[in-house]
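User: tokens in, sequence out, please.
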């Protein structure tokens, strides 16, 4: 008996452009101003610094760390608010969530830092639909959704792996990994190749579980 549906956020419920705007446009724009250089040069410099830490490190996800490292004196809420118009729901995500929340407890399980997740949920008006929001990096200090992440998610929610369903757009971190710990998982892959675990549209979950 399924009780909980866990959703990835970026690429599954929202399109993920927002994070790119903050990291790859917003931060470089302020860096360019701070060090009086052309924007294109600032983009290259900032990207090189990001790459020197790499996505396997928790600091890579930490906007406060980067603003301090670059000596940029911009309040984080102000930086994040500049790009909220780029937060876009993916097709049918709202319909699916409204229907599923009548029958299941819904949670978010994202890799993004909590501050980004909360901004995206608030802007789309979806925050009240989710009873728990978990950021792997901010809350569990884990950089990827690995086996330990999903086991901790279950214990945090007080459910067994058999009682939870996870859905997301990453074939490994949202599907293979949860399946390996006994969590029913589905791959959101609109327009892509499919198998029995692929859904083109989040509304498909209503028929699968
Ligand atoms: Mg994703």
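Assistant: Sequence out:
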């Amino acid at each position: 008996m399924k009780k909980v549906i866990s959703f990835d956020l970026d690429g599954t419920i929202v399109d993920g452009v927002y994070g790119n705007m903050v990291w790859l446009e917003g931060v470089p724009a302020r860096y360019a101003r701070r060090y009086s250089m052309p924007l294109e040069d600032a983009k290259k410099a900032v990207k090189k610094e990001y790459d020197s830490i790499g996505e396997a490190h928790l600091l890579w996800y930490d906007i406060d760390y980067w603003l301090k490292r670059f000596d940029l004196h911009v309040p984080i809420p102000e930086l994040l608010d500049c790009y909220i118009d780029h937060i876009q729901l993916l097709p049918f995500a709202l319909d699916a969530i409204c229907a599923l929340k009548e029958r299941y407890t819904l949670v978010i399980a994202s890799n993004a830092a909590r501050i980004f997740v909360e901004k995206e949920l608030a802007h789309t008006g979806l925050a009240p639909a989710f009873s728990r929001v978990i950021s792997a990096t901010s809350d569990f200090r884990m950089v990827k959704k690995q086996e330990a992440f999903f086991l901790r998610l279950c214990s945090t929610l007080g459910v067994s792996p058999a009682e939870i369903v996870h859905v997301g757009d990453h074939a490994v971190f949202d599907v293979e990994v949860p399946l390996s710990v006994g969590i029913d998982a589905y791959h959101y892959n609109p327009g892509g190749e499919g198998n029995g675990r692929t859904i083109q549209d989040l509304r498909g979950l209503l028929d699968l579980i």
